[in-house]
Design goal:
Blueprint lengths: L9 H16 L13 H8 L4 H5 L5 E12 L3 E8 L2 E8 L7 H7 L5 E10 L5 E12 L15 H6 L1 H7 L1 H23 L3 E2 L5 E2 L11 E4 L4 E5 L4 H9 L4 E9 L11 E10 L3 H20 L3 E4 L2 E4 L5 E4 H8 L11 H10 L10 H12 L8 E7 L15 E9 L2 E8 L4 H16 L10 H8 L5 E7 H9 L18
Parallel strand pairs: 3-5, 6-10, 14-15
Antiparallel strand pairs: 1-2, 1-4, 2-3, 4-5, 7-9, 8-9, 10-11, 11-18, 12-13, 15-16, 16-17, 17-18
Helix pairs in contact: 7-9, 7-15, 10-12, 11-12, 13-14
This protein binds one RNA strand of 73 nucleotides through helix 1, strand 1, strand 2, strand 3 and helix 5.
Length: 497
RNA sequence: GGGCCGUUAGCUUAGCUGGUAGAGCAGGGGACUCUUAAUCCCAAGGUCCAGGGUUCGAAUCCCUGACGGCCCA
């Protein structure tokens, strides 16, 4: 029940009594006040004007926001209000106001929403402020805000009642503002490159495009089970077949898996597809995009993350998966990676759970994830993934066991996954068949056989490259945030009762 | 799913080997026309996460559960 059990305390009772008095004086929740400027605009406009210059400034401004602090003296007071742009100090003198406004103001609380009209000036200590001609209460706050100095430190309340976190933490506000800027920038960038933004189904009869367990829901009037999508991939590629040769979608995926610092059941993914291009073109585009994102968000290409420094201005390192595994496991030889029996022993020796169904490719990837992934701090493209773990990727011309595929790692985490698309319908059908076999023998993450998608390929899909970028993890990087819960406004939590 | 840690006033927290809960902020009353963690005086505020157990006595020790955090699978 969290805060709901805290309904009955002195503070709330007193504030409710004040609200009752307000109701008796008229509408306690008026909506006829209009502001004409935001706090930050005042700082921008007058930030470099000194006290004397401001004394000649007679323009009247109307601002509204939440009262975040108040210092009440006998006949004059200071207060700060906060709006969506920032804060500004108010100077409120009894003799400047009409009637009993000052007496009313004295009864208000931190957290109340107020509207104020007045002119700018600078205090003796130099703070740009509004000298109030009139001030009104626009909405009463009945519950006390978190303590002003330490703020809100209870993680649980920060997530469950995010509005309190947003009211009290400038860092949190900034994180989510950056998140929006990142998404806007990506959207503008891809649109500028000629990509068309589309929306594809979130509810799918066959969940495809990734190896993951889906959420299941039910459509009543059709009386059919549907899956929340684990990826939009197969629908976006149908659009490529349809002639939308450059498409992208930024939207939610849902995966029915555990929660961690990097996993939330619903998360945001960018996927984009580019006909007549290959996976190497995607790597180049990704580097350029990330570079421009860093500049957009923080003005240069240097990204500080959890005490480390990444330079998005440098060319990203490229390394094959095999070379990466060998480099981080010096006791292994190239031959070890091709010998299934040896691989099984090596993997088991490193504490990897080896299933009977695992082939050499899957074991190589398991080894990579166990011994290499977390070490890849600087931006690194890992290439040449085994076809065994890449059922939607094109085969390499020279090495048919290898897919023309890459993943991008930064800060030890997978940020992006891209490849040249498999557009041979017969090869795709065979790969689905193998996946469906795996599913039948108990692999819950194996893919379904999507015959409708194969049909689409049979009409002919242009040679295409595609990529997915995890937006939440990217925002974590760009906001120096350790937990995915800090970049999702309302992260998944257990319900309380 | 496993391990470790946490949960005390609205918020931030103290509370040692078991002896009946203390502070700061916020809030209430009073003073104060340039404060900014405003200041000064006074008074108030607690289901110590929940349930069970040990004990003369439990916020404190034990068990179970809830929720959260971190680590691991």
């Amino acid at each position: 029940m969290i805060a709901m059990t805290k309904d009955d305390n002195d503070i709330i009772r007193q504030r409710r009594a004040q609200l009752q008095a307000l109701r008796e004086r008229g509408n306690a929740y008026p909506n006829d006040f209009r502001r004409n400027i935001l706090a930050q605009e005042l700082h921008t406009r007058y930030g470099d004007k000194d006290k004397e210059q401001l004394e000649t400034e007679t323009e009247k401004f109307s601002l509204a926001g939440r009262m975040m602090s108040r210092r009440v003296m006998g006949k004059a007071s200071f207060a700060h209000i906060q709006d969506m742009s920032g804060r500004i100090q108010l100077f409120i003198r009894r003799d400047d106001l009409a009637d009993d406004s000052y007496a009313q103001f004295r009864k208000w609380d931190i957290g109340d929403l107020v509207g104020v009209t007045g002119s700018v000036f600078r205090t003796r200590t130099g703070e740009l402020s509004i000298q109030a001609d009139s001030i009104r209460l626009l909405a009463k706050s009945l519950r006390p805000l978190p303590e002003k100095f330490h703020g809100l430190s209870d993680q649980e309340i920060r997530y469950r009642q995010r509005y309190l976190d947003l009211i009290t933490s400038a860092t949190t506000r900034q994180t989510f503002q950056i998140r929006t800027r990142v998404i806007n920038h990506i959207r503008a960038y891809l649109t500028g490159c000629g990509f068309l933004e589309v929306e594809t189904p979130m509810m799918q009869a066959i969940p495809g495009g990734a190896a993951a367990r889906p959420f299941i829901t039910h459509h009543n009037s059709l009386d059919m089970d549907l899956y929340l999508r684990i990826a939009p991939e197969l629908y976006l590629k149908r659009l490529v077949v349809g002639g939308f040769e450059k498409v992208f979608e930024i939207n939610r995926n849902f995966r029915n898996e555990g929660l961690s610092l990097q996993h939330n059941p619903e998360f945001t993914m960018l996927e984009f597809y580019w006909a007549y291009a290959g996976y190497e073109d995607m790597m180049s585009l990704t580097e350029t995009l990330f570079r421009s994102l860093a500049v957009e968000v923080q003005g240069d290409t240097i990204v500080e993350y959890q005490g480390e420094t990444y330079d998005f201005g440098m060319e990203f390192r490229r390394l094959t998966l095999r070379d990466a595994v060998l480099a981080h496991n010096p006791e292994l030889s190239a031959g070890d990676l091709d010998d299934l029996d040896r691989l099984r022993n090596i993997a088991a020796g490193k504490g990897i759970e080896v299933k009977d169904s695992y082939g050499a490719g899957k074991l190589q990837v398991e080894l990579f994830e166990k011994t290499v992934e977390a070490q890849l701090k600087q931006p690194t493209f890992i290439t040449a993934y085994p076809v065994e773990v890449s059922p939607l990727s094109r085969r390499n011309e020279a090495q048919p066991d290898i897919a023309d595929r890459f993943e991008l790692f930064i800060g030890g985490r997978e940020i992006a996954n891209g490849f040249s698309e498999l557009n041979d319908p017969d090869d795709q059908a065979e790969r689905f068949r193998i996946q469906a076999e795996g599913k039948a023998s108990g692999d819950e993450e194996a893919m379904h056989y999507d015959a409708d998608y194969v049909t689409a390929l049979e009409y002919g899909m242009p040679p295409t490259a595609g990529e997915g970028i995890g937006i939440d993890r990217l925002v974590m990087l760009l906001t120096d945030t350790a937990s995915i819960r800090d970049v999702i406004l309302f992260p998944q939590l257990r319900t309380k009762e």
